[in-house]
Amino acid sequence: MAEVRDDVRYLATHEWVKLEADGSVVVGISDHAQDALGDVVFVELPEIGTSFVQGSEMAVVESVKAASDIYAPVSGVVVACNSALEDAPETVNDSPYDAGWFVRLTPDDPSSIESLLSPDAYQALCDDETR
Amino acid sequence: MPFIPHTDAERDEMLEAIGVTTIDALFDEVPMSLRASLPPEMPEGISEMALMQLMQRRAKQDEMSLSFLGAGAYEHHIPAAVWDLTNRGEFLTAYTPYQAEASQGTLQLIYEFQTMIARLTALDVANASVYDGATALAEAMLMAVRANKTNKSKRIVVAGNLNPHYIAVCEAIVSNQGLVLEVLEPDEQTGTIPTDCAPQLSEAAALVVSYPNFFGGLDPVDALTDAAAAAGALVIGVVNPTALALLKPPGQWGASGADIAVGEGQPLGIPLASGGPYLGFMCCRKAYVRQMPGRIIGRTVDQTGQPGYALTLQAREQHIRRGKATSNICTNQGLLVTAATLYLSLLGDEGLRQVALKSHAGINQLVAAAGQIEGVSRRFSGPVFHEQVLQLPVPAADVVNLMANEGILPGLALGALWAPMANCLLVNVTETKTSDDIDHFVTHLANAIEAIKSTC
Amino acid sequence: MLIFERSRSGRRAAAQHVSSKGLGLDLGDDLGEHLRHSPAGLPEVSELEVVRHYTNLSAKNFAIDRQFYPLGSCTMKYNPRGAAAAASQPGFLKRHPLAPEAQSQGYLACLYELQTYLQALTGMKAVSLTPMAGAQGEFAGVAMIRAYHQKRGDHDRVEILVPEAAHGTNPATAVMCGFVVREIPVTPEGDVDLAALQAAVGPRTAGLMMTNPSTCGVFERQIAAIAETVHEAGGLLYYDGANLNAILGKVRPGDMGFDVLHMNLHKTFATPHGGGGPGSGPVGVGERLLPFLPTPTVGQTESGTFRWLDKRDLPDTIGRLSGFMGNAGILLRAYAYARLLGGEGMQRVGAYATLNANYMAKRLTEAGFDLAYPTRRATHEFIITLAKQAKHHHVTAMDVAKRLLDYGVHAPTTYFPLLVPECLLIEPTETESKAEIDGFVAAMAAIADEIVNTPDQVTSAPHTLPVTRLDDVKAARDLDLAWLKTQPA
Q: Residue B116 and residue B113: Cα distance in Å, rounded?
């Protein structure tokens, strides 16, 4: 049973988003997503300083059988990337919500995170997909 | 029924098992209006014997006794073992190695090929090949645009002494994605690219340099590579693999080396065969490997820890990435890669170097001898690999037609490609030519020129 | 062991060395700074070592010559040796691509006739033999569609429609040509959703790429309505020739309303797959796209001789797609195949390919397997789904594919099309006998048994091959793409 954390928000495309105390936003992929992808072999992260519009392609996560786009959950500017994933992409599988984070953004509008999926709504979506 | 093994009895048994009485009944989902009849343009089938007689006749029609024609496809000696082994059914009739465990022969061979080509070009990695040298260059241009993080541009600066067919192919392919090709004019005297082209390189995604160039000459690759690097452009080298046994490989050009190398692999054990199938090789620095299209074989282990080989980085390819693939390609020139790998294994560094040396000596000898003919001279100055352009006192196309009727292909008349070069003939010599062949050529060339002069 | 590991410094295949004695070269003066300073590092081995090494490697391969290869959509039929021999006449092998036309009449005759046959078989007006593979043929076709709309000044048509079950090359090609891709759903019966298509077409539609039979292995029954829908909206119809074997000689894409198509000679015309290539992907066009054909093609003069047609004859051509004119050697093999079969032989291809597929589908159903489209006729191929086995026994299509290798059969195509879960796409081809098909069914039945009783045998297969299942995660994470000179054995 894939883990759904309750302290983050979600996208229908299986990204999780966490609003930090300093106003920045951290993005990663959910347990459900890493399980569906299989063993992650590579993560392509954006350059620091790049700005993204909500919903645009921000990163790519690659497994042996798929290469999936990671979408910017909110509009903002990249301030940090998890470069540890370069040498240890399997971290995404082992710890999708913690050590396996992808990108930290400074959001244009922090409140926009509220319109994203709640943990319950995301859980329902996953249940639908599995059925 | 050629190649269909069914007896009438078997056919009827199968129809009964399915529950129909005729094969036609199996097409009942096809609207009647679409059912086609026998195409009248197609003749009746012939036996293999009749086929061989027909093809022998047609092939003989086109045979020439001696050729000095290069221009992108070169006549080299192919060791007998190369095609003897390549034509083995296990290589010839095998499929793409998607089921790795059932394809270790092909996969290991391709890994060895990748290694050999990477070493020849002195770059880090190679792919399993693409269709030919021209399309390899087109793919390299697209790759450079994706990979260049410094100059985010769709401009590619191209040496004007590159094979004009390659430029045409690249135009046809890359213009669809908005890439723009800017051609650098070669120097009138040397036929090479001047090194003061830096201003044009500014902000370009890549510079394409041909080595040797289409005229056989050798460009100042070190200076050009440094100029491109300084301008933030990637360097794509279009190279001849035989020449690399003798000449500086792209990975060692300039201070930091070229970024991508491509070329035509035909000289490596593949017959001229009217232009194909050939193979396009692609090599690059490790940092760009995820942007490289085509199949790539990687070494790994199996469940028992034994080394094995498999397709890797497939997520870049069309069958997974679909619309976002690096390319739509799903072929590598497997059979030709097999031949090239066998060729390179048989020749080794020393053997390949000798082929290159003998070819190089041959062109020098031919040009020296031809220069004795009145009105014949070198068109371009400077060192060459195994081709040169001769300036003739008469139209080269007329010389070609006359000599071809005598069974000799003297080279490529350049007038069709560049009008001002109507009297120019691109001549190639490989290790297959003896001194007698060269003398024969020079005699006939002199006669042809005389004959044409006297009719003017 | 790699060929590099057999290398010993100073070892030579000396018979291959040409003497450069007495050439009187002073390379220093001549080539100077252009000289290579250290050798590349090619293997140093004897000729016997090379022959033995690669002969032994070949023995590790599955191949049509050895095993049954029911790979759906790949058409792994017998590669006739006669066709290879005919194409490998010395005069053809030695012919330089740029030889003058006067000395190329034998070769050009073969190509011209092949163009004629392909036109007749597909119902198209003209053919270009230059694309070097199916994917390049697709590129040519879509590029021609783009050229057509641009020539008419219609720059709004930026979308290419593609059924969701389409082969990956279709959307990849559309993007390569600068288009945006829009997917059309497929119904549970395997047909393109006509209503969805009607809703999707409009002034932004450049064209629709599809194949018939479709990638679901069934005939697209509403093709007339599909063609009408797309044409009425001002778009063009592209035919992916991957499944031409099903209808060769029986149905013509031109009659179905397609404006442009590509053929895969390495599938339909029995040219060898060579471990991954070469292919050959000629394109055929109707009247509308004729001006844009890729060059060169072969034409005939009034006196009956043959000549090349290029940009001077076709000023609106999309251009040249290869350094020379395509995979000539493959074209000659395809020509030879066409001469051996003749018109009647071509019709038998479609007929017997369909007979074999339907027979096999029936026998597999009797053995307990589930067809993905049980209400439809099989064409030259069909799909079975192992979703039931995956759910109850945790055995996947991949596991079954690997276990088949132990039974001496190359696995069918797995996981394509993507919309059928745990699927095997199976294409016997017309050159396989009833006995071979029965043998395959028996192997599948045996595996069905194993799935229930000894599933481990299946999930850890293959057991009898030179290697067991390979770690492709490691292959992607720890990239080892070339043998380093300093690598330990």
A: 5
Tokens of B331: 């072929």
For residue A35, the tally of other CB atoms under 10 A from its CB is 12
What pLDDT, in 10s, does the model give residues B324-339?
766 777 778 999 999 9
Global ipTM: 0.95
- pLDDT reported for residue C489: 47
For range B91-103, the mean pLDDT: 94
Which residue positions in chain C have pLDDT lower than 50?
Answer: 489
B85 residue type, one letter:
L
Distance between CA atoms of residues A86 and A84, nearest Å: 5
C184 phi and psi angles, rounded to 5 deg: -110, 130
Q: Which of B126-130, B439-443, C158-162, C167-171 has the lowest mean pLDDT?
A: C167-171
Best residue in B152, B289, B290, B322 to probe A by mutation, most A CBs within 10 Å?
B290
Q: Rounded to whole angstroms, what are the CA distances from A44 to A94, B149, B182?
A: 18, 14, 31
* Region B66-75+348-455: CATH code: 3.90.1150.10
Cα–Cα distance, B178 to B166 (Å, whole number): 18
pLDDT band for position A131 (50/70/90)? low
- Non-local CB neighbours of B40 within 8 Å, separated by 6+ positions: C120, C343
pLDDT tens, residue by residue, C325-336:
999 999 999 999
Of B306, B136, B299, which is closest to residue B208 (Cα–Cα)?
B136
Q: Looking at the partner chain, which of B17, B248, B275 has a beta carbon nearest the beta carbon of C35?
A: B248
A94: in domain: no
DSSP structural state of residue B277:
S
In this structure, is residue A79 part of a structural domain? Answer: no
Domain residue limits at A39? 8-74
Domains and CATH numbers, chain C: 82-340 (3.40.640.10), 345-473 (3.90.1150.10)
For B444, the token pair is: 């006939």
- Taking the C-alpha atoms of residue C369 and residue C275, their distance in angstroms, rounded to an integer, is 31
The CATH 3.90.1150.10 portion of chain B extends over: 66-75+348-455
Q: How many CB atoms lie within 10 A of CB B198?
A: 15
Class of domain B80-341: alpha beta
State the pLDDT at residue B211.
98
What is the SS3 assignment for C367? Answer: coil
Strand stretches in B221-303, DSSP E: 234-239, 260-264, 280-284, 297-301
Q: Is A131 inside a domain boundary?
A: no
pTM of the model: 0.94
Q: What residue in A sits closest to C478 (Cα-Cα)?
A: A41
Sequence-ordered list of residues with C-beta below 8 angstroms from that of C53, at least 6 positions apart, any chain: B345, C1, C3, C6, C45
Q: Is there a domain that residue A82 lies in?
A: no
Closest alpha carbon within chain C to A63: C473
Split into its structural domains, chain A has a count of 1
Contact (CB<8Å) A67/B316: yes
Distance of residue A39 Cα from the nearest chain C Cα, in angstroms:
7
The candidate with the shortest Cα–Cα distance to B280, out of B208, B333, B216, is B333
In this complex, which chains have at least 3 CB pairs below 8 Å with chain A? Answer: B, C
Q: Given CB atoms, is B316 within the 8 Å cutoff of chain A?
A: yes
CB C259 within 8 A of CB C283: no
Among B307, B286, B332, which Cα is nearest to B110's?
B332
Neighbours of C124 (CB within 10 A): 25
CATH of the domain at A17: 2.40.50.100
Strands B412-413 and B125-126: unpaired
